[in-house]
Every structure is written in structure tokens, then in C-alpha cells.
């Protein structure tokens, strides 16, 4: 079996699957020399022009810069700087339309050339005397990224640890119209070869293989001349077929080996650079010229002078087109890139960047715009054209469904976006656009997942740290506990000795000492009890002192007591106003009624006593005056009955109504007596029916009747009052009839 080098030396070629043969339209351009574009009025230099991250901006508005001066600083390995393409003034650092299918604005440095095109100081290197690191550093600081269109940083791609079997220089410019590399090889073959030598110095490959399409005879010839005598270097002419310039497709074409899905060429011992990249490396190392310009194919039937132009990075597309005699149609499409992989520009102010190899301004007849998209008819023409052996129609389906798992399963990221599938699709489906959108979404998801993963890692690290701190605290506490226990056990004998000494001293005490101690203990106990008693009383006193409700109740009780005493004294003051003879008989009954009104049993006893007393007095008086016992007893009986009734009323009233006020009843009786007396005095003599001796008794009867009426009115029982009044009137009448004529 032949080795790889033997196969290459045998000039054997293989085939790759798929591919298409669009019309190339390169013949005219490849014969023209490279033109140099005059300095534009303004240059728009995007901070990021490669795969990776933008460098840190070093300039600001108003700065004057020299040609080749770095405008950004590469502060990590995925970054490469951008440089001033000419000397001039920084007008702004602002957002500008990006040269990207999305056309999103990106940060740009706006430079106004001063026309002097003055270089900064340069420091060329002798690469043979430089280490790999020095050369990689120079390549990075010169801002070199893949010139074939990918834009991957060259210093990163070159920094490999694996053995490189074959270094492939890609001069296969398969896209229609584009002839920038062809022109470069024709005019700068020696510099390209110098660049290849520098790369060989870095990578130390076993062989160099330069591949050029067979439709570029001038370029092949130039490169053969430049490479003459170098071993083992090979130049291969490959058949024109699109996309034979693709990295994996060209390796398969040259070596018959296939780069596995998701792997890189270095994984099978191969490394590939574009001829433009080799040229840029030579410029950077040998002349200290950073990547500040590039060759751009400006083509299309709307141009009077289509040609390859050496344009400063940042040149607006409009300047390039007008330099080539642009005569636009209405509407006019301008495409950045070739007709297969390019994209239509949103406006002509978009700048040329490091990966721009073609500006195409075709007529409608020359390159008709894509028609209206139709449904897939499952014709499988796309699958047959795919150089990556994919299933474009399935990828389309899953892209529309945003099924990322299926897209991954069907190797979406092996798609090189060559556009061969869309080129052959009869339904005019823009398949590549769908794939680009799907890739962007998946990359975004991967970025989010990465961020989440990093956050999770940080969280877990924090948890581990907290757990470690907790364990350390536990360990420390346990250690301290052990130390404390050890200390206590060391002090234990002293405590025992002290206790023994106390017991011994107690045993040595005399009875007198013990009595004194006992007395002292009793005194302390008594003191403690007193203190406890004080504490117990204090809250109660404090509560009564501070409880307003209890204080109010106590005040109300005091007022009621005082009122009762006042009522008792009032009743004593009312009686002296009555006649003295009557006072003797009525006072006990009234007093009993007033003081015992609330106790019916006592009131009855008092009434009985009053009746007995009155009877006794009547008997004594009868013996003196000759009146009968019955006659003498009547006034007293009237009084007694009144007292009895007055005393009994509360008991009746209690049943139906609140108890009457005896004090008020006594007052009412006194007022009634006074009224009766007054009426008796006011009665004319003609109306008087009895002798003068009878007047007191009559007055007493009227008084009793009135008092009875008043008293009965007071308790609010009209029936009883009426009965009492009737009884009083009957007695008075009887008394009148029994008077001596
Ligand atoms: S664009 Fe992708 S899917 Fe379509 S042919 Fe090219 S590699 Fe295949
Ligand atoms: S070429 Fe177009 S229509 Fe045919 S299968 Fe592919 S996507 Fe569908």
C-alpha cells in the first residue's frame, strides 16, 4: 500500500461526491493586471473582521494615525488587531452597516486619509532566525486571518502540536467570476512562495502540495517557476468543479482521504492555507506589513472595467464599483462574494474587509434574481449536488421545525454553505439561508448552555467551599471540646480536695458555732420570707393603684355609702316638724317603715309592736278621759296600718317592680300630713262638725288618709292607694259618728 507521499508524488487524484459546474466567467478578468484603487475619501474599518472576538480599540476621534498603525489590540488568542490602511485622521468610532448577511451595524473606526500614505516604523524579521512563537506572534499582531473566506485566525491555525504530513496551499478558486487568487499567483508568486516557506518553518511538514484549478494556466506556470527546485514540493492542477476549493473537498480530491465529520484536517495530518494567506504571512514577517489591503474581484456586466483591484481594508463598496465604471440598473443587485456563496448587500456603504474576495454587480439578464420560493417536491437533486454528502431537503425540513436534535443528527455543521443544493433546486428554495439561520440559533443556544454550565460550575464550587468551611468549623469545635474536657479533668482533683476540706472544717466546729450558724440561717430565711411577702403584695397594690376600673368601683361604693347615711339623717330631720302628740305614736311606725322597708318580716313585726303600743296607750288614756278602749286605739291603729301597709308594699312591689325608696315614702307621708293639717285649718267653722277636742284626731285621720294616698301614689300601685284611701275615709267617718254629741 502506497504512503500518502507516494500517492501525492504519483500525481494521483480522487473525486469528491456531488458538485456542480456553473459557468465560470473568469477568462477576461484573469488576463488583466491587478489595479490599485486610489485612496477613498473615508475608510470604514470594522473592529472585528474574522472568526473570533474584536480587539480593544486603541484610538479615538481626533487621533492621527500612521499607515500600518494598530487601531485595536488583540488581548486574547481569539482576537487579531486591525490596522490603519493609510495615514490620516480618526473621524469617529461608531456603528456602521456590517458586511454580513444580517447587515447588522457593528463598531467601526472611520478614518479620513490624509493622502500622504505615511508608514509607521517597520521591523522586518529574518524568519529563519526566529522561533515559532516569534513568527506566530508576528502573524497575530499583523492581523492575519484566513483570506479564502473563512476568516479563521492564522496564528491559531498554525499553533498545532501534531505532526503535519502534508501542507496544502489552496489556489483553487472555484466560485464563478472570482479570480483574485489567480491574479495574485500570477503577479506575486515569489512572495506567496516566501510565505509558504515561513509556514513550513513553523509547521515543518513532510511535503508541500499546491493545488490550482486547471482553468488557471498562467497561475500554474507562475507558481511552478517560483517553486522550482524546492523538494518535496508539488503543484497539482485539479479539474474545475464547484466546490473543489472547499477544504474537505480539496483534501479528498488530492489525497483520497476524508476528514471525519466534526474533525479538522490536522486530525488526519494535513494543514491547508489559502494562497492569499501565504502572501499575507510573507508580507507580515519579511516586510512588517500588516493586513491592510487585499485583492478584490470586481465583476458584473454593469461595470465598464471589471477587474481585480488592490483595495485598502475599509473601502466602501461604492468606491470600488465607481472605480470600475459602475452603471447600475434599476433595480440593481450588488453581491458580496460569488454568485454561489455571496449575499446581497443592503447598501453600498458597506466596507471591504479581510475576507472580501469579490464584489459582483450583475445585470438582471446576467444573473436573474431568485424567483418565488415554492414547496419542496422531494426530487433529491440537492442531495445529489451536495459535496458533503448531506441530505439538504431533510435539513430544510428540520431547520423550519427548529428541531436542533435532528439537525445535529443530520450533520448540519458539516454543511460548507457552498450553495450547490440551492443552485440545482427546481423549487428555488434558498436552502443556504435556512441553514445559516439554523446554525446561528444553535450557536446561540450553545452559548447560553455554556453560560449555564459555567454558572452551575461556579455554584457547585461555592457549595463545596461552604461545605468545606462547615466541616472545618465542626472540626475546630470538636478540637476545642476535647481541649476543654482535658482541662476540666486536669482541674478535677482540686475541686474534690476543696470539698473534703469543707467537710473537715464542719466536723471541727463546736456546738456554739453550730448554734450560731443555725441562728444565722434562720435569720436569713426570715429575711427571705419577708422579701417574698413584699414581692407578693407589691403587685397587688400596684394593680389596685394602677387599675382605673377598680378605683372607679371603689369610688362608686363610697358615694353610695355616703348617700345612704345622708338619707338616714334626712329622715330624722323630717319628724320634728310634726305635732308632738302624734310623734309619739307615728314615729316608731315610720321609722320602722323607713329603716325596714326592704325587710317585710321586720316591718310586720314593727307594725305589730306599734299596734300593741297604741292599744296600751289608748287603754291608759281611756281610763283618764272616759273614752272607750276602741275609740282611743283607732288613730294608733290607723298609724300602725299605714306603717304596715307602707312596709308591706315593697314586698309586693318587689314581685312586679323595683323596690321603692323608703326615704322618699317617708318624705311623701310627711308632706301628706302637712297638707291634711293645712286643709283642716282651712276648713270653715260652719263645716266643722265636731268639738274642738276632736280636731287633732280628725286631722290625724285626714293626714293618714292623705299620707296613705301619697304613699300609695309613690310606689305606683293605684289600686292599693285607692283601697287605702277608702279605708281611711271610712275610719274617719266612723270616728265622726262615734264622737259625743
Ligand atoms: S450548501 Fe450545504 S447542504 Fe447545500 S450542497 Fe452545500 S454543503 Fe450541501
Ligand atoms: S432540490 Fe429542492 S425541491 Fe428538490 S428535494 Fe431538494 S429542496 Fe426539495
Any key phrases for this structure?
single chain; 741 residues; alpha/beta; Rossmann fold; 6-stranded mixed sheet; 4-stranded antiparallel sheet; 52% helix; 10% strand; elongated; binds iron/sulfur cluster
Q: State the shape.
A: elongated
Mean pLDDT: 82
Order the strands across the largest sheet as they lie in space. Answer: 1-13-12-16-14-15
Q: What count of helical segments does DSSP give?
A: 22
What does this structure look like?
This protein is elongated. It has helices at 4-9, 27-30, 132-141, 154-158, 180-203, 217-227, 247-255, 275-287, 317-323, 381-385, 392-401, 404-409, 420-424, 431-507, 511-546, 548-574, 580-595, 600-625, 629-656, 662-682, 695-713, 718-737; strands at 35-36, 43-46, 56-57, 64-65, 72-73, 88-97, 105-113, 166-171, 207-213, 233-238, 270-274, 293-299, 307-312, 335-336, 343-344, 358-360. The protein has 741 residues and is an alpha/beta fold. Residues 542-546, 572-598, 623-660 and 683-716 have low confidence and may be disordered. A hairpin with a 7-residue loop joins β12 (293-299) and β13. Among the domains are: 123-239 and 268-288, 3-Layer(aba) Sandwich (Rossmann fold), CATH 3.40.50; 556-737, no CATH class. The protein has 22 helices and 16 strands. α16 (548-574) packs parallel to α20 and α17 runs parallel beside α19 (629-656). The longest helix is centred in the middle third of the chain and has 77 residues, at 431-507. The strands form 4 sheets. A 6-stranded mixed beta sheet has the order 1-13-12-16-14-15, sandwiched between helices. A 4-stranded antiparallel beta sheet has the order 2-7-6-4, with no helix packed on it. The protein binds iron/sulfur cluster (2 copies). One iron/sulfur cluster (SF4) is lined by residues 376-382, 392-393, 396, 424-427, 429.
Amino acid at each position: 500500500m502506497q504512503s500518502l507521499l507516494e500517492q501525492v508524488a504519483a500525481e494521483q487524484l480522487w473525486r469528491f461526491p456531488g458538485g456542480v459546474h456553473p459557468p465560470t466567467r473568469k477568462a477576461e478578468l484573469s488576463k488583466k493586471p491587478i489595479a490599485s484603487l486610489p485612496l477613498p475619501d473615508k475608510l470604514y474599518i470594522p473592529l472585528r473582521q474574522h472568526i473570533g472576538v474584536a480587539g480593544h480599540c486603541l484610538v479615538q476621534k481626533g487621533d492621527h494615525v500612521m499607515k500600518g498603525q494598530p487601531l485595536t489590540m488583540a488581548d486574547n488568542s481569539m482576537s487579531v488587531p486591525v490596522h490603519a490602511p493609510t495615514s490620516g485622521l480618526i473621524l469617529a468610532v461608531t456603528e456602521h452597516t456590517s458586511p454580513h448577511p444580517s447587515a447588522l451595524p457593528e463598531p467601526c473606526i472611520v478614518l479620513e486619509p490624509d493622502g500622504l500614505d505615511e508608514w509607521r516604523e517597520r521591523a522586518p524579521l529574518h524568519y529563519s532566525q526566529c522561533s515559532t512563537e516569534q513568527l506566530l506572534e508576528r502573524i497575530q499582531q499583523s492581523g492575519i486571518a484566513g483570506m479564502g473566506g473563512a476568516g479563521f485566525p492564522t496564528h491559531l491555525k498554525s499553533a498545532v502540536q501534531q505532526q503535519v504530513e502534508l501542507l496544502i496551499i489552496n489556489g483553487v478558486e472555484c466560485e464563478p467570476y472570482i479570480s483574485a487568487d489567480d491574479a495574485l499567483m500570477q503577479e506575486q508568486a515569489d512572495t506567496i512562495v516566501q510565505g509558504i516557506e515561513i509556514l513550513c518553518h513553523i509547521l515543518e511538514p513532510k511535503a508541500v502540495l499546491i493545488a490550482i484549478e486547471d482553468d488557471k494556466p498562467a497561475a500554474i506556470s507562475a507558481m511552478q517557476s517560483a517553486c522550482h527546485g524546492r523538494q518535496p514540493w508539488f503543484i497539482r492542477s485539479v479539474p474545475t468543479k464547484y466546490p473543489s476549493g472547499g477544504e474537505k473537498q480539496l483534501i479528498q480530491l488530492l489525497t483520497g482521504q476524508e476528514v471525519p465529520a466534526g474533525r479538522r484536517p490536522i486530525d488526519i495530518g494535513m494543514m491547508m492555507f489559502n494562497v492569499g494567506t501565504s502572501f499575507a504571512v510573507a508580507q507580515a514577517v519579511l516586510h512588517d506589513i500588516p493586513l491592510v489591503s487585499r485583492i478584490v474581484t470586481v465583476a458584473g456586466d454593469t461595470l465598464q472595467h471589471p477587474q481585480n483591484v488592490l483595495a485598502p481594508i475599509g473601502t466602501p463598496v461604492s468606491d470600488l464599483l465607481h472605480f470600475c465604471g459602475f452603471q447600475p440598473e434599476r433595480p440593481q443587485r450588488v453581491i458580496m462574494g460569488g454568485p454561489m456563496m455571496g449575499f446581497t448587500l443592503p447598501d453600498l456603504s458597506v466596507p471591504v474587509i479581510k475576507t472580501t474576495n469579490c464584489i459582483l454587480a450583475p445585470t438582471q439578464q446576467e444573473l436573474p434574481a431568485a424567483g418565488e420560493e415554492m414547496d419542496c417536491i422531494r426530487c433529491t437533486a440537492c442531495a445529489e449536488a451536495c459535496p458533503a454528502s448531506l441530505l439538504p431537503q431533510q435539513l430544510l425540513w428540520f431547520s423550519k421545525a427548529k428541531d436542533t436534535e435532528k439537525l445535529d443528527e443530520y450533520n448540519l455543521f458539516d454543511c460548507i454553505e457552498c450553495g450547490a443544493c440551492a443552485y440545482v433546486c427546481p423549487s428555488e428554495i434558498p436552502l443556504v439561508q435556512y441553514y445559516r439561520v439554523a446554525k446561528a440559533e444553535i450557536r446561540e443556544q450553545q452559548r447560553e448552555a455554556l453560560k449555564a454550565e459555567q454558572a452551575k460550575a461556579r455554584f457547585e464550587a461555592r457549595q463545596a467551599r461552604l461545605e468545606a468551611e462547615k466541616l472545618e468549623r465542626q472540626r475546630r469545635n470538636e478540637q476545642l471540646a476535647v481541649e476543654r474536657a482535658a482541662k476540666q479533668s486536669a482541674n478535677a482533683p482540686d475541686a474534690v480536695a476543696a470539698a473534703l476540706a469543707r467537710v473537715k472544717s464542719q466536723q471541727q466546729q463546736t456546738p456554739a458555732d453550730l448554734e450560731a450558724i443555725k441562728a444565722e440561717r434562720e435569720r436569713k430565711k426570715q429575711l427571705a420570707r419577708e422579701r417574698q411577702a413584699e414581692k407578693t403584695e407589691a403587685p397587688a397594690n400596684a394593680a389596685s393603684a394602677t387599675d382605673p376600673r377598680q378605683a372607679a368601683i371603689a369610688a362608686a361604693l363610697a358615694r353610695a355609702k355616703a348617700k345612704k347615711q345622708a338619707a338616714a339623717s334626712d329622715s330624722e330631720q323630717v319628724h320634728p316638724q310634726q305635732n308632738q302628740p302624734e310623734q309619739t305614736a307615728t314615729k316608731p311606725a315610720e321609722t320602722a317603715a323607713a329603716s325596714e322597708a326592704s325587710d317585710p318580716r321586720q316591718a310586720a313585726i314593727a307594725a305589730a309592736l306599734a299596734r300593741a303600743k297604741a292599744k296600751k296607750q289608748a287603754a291608759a288614756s281611756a281610763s283618764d278621759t272616759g273614752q272607750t278602749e276602741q275609740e282611743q286605739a283607732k288613730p294608733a291603729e290607723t298609724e300602725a296600718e299605714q306603717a304596715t301597709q307602707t312596709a308591706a308594699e315593697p314586698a309586693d312591689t318587689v314581685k312586679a317592680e323595683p323596690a321603692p325608696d323608703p326615704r322618699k315614702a317617708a318624705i311623701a307621708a310627711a308632706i301628706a300630713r302637712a297638707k291634711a293639717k293645712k286643709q283642716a285649718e282651712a276648713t270653715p267653722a260652719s263645716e266643722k262638725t265636731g268639738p274642738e277636742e276632736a280636731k287633732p284626731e280628725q286631722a290625724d285621720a285626714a293626714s293618714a288618709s292623705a299620707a296613705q294616698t301619697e304613699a300609695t301614689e309613690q310606689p305606683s300601685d293605684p289600686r292599693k292607694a285607692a283601697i287605702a284611701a277608702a279605708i281611711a275615709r271610712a275610719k274617719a267617718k266612723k270616728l265622726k259618728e262615734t264622737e259625743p254629741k
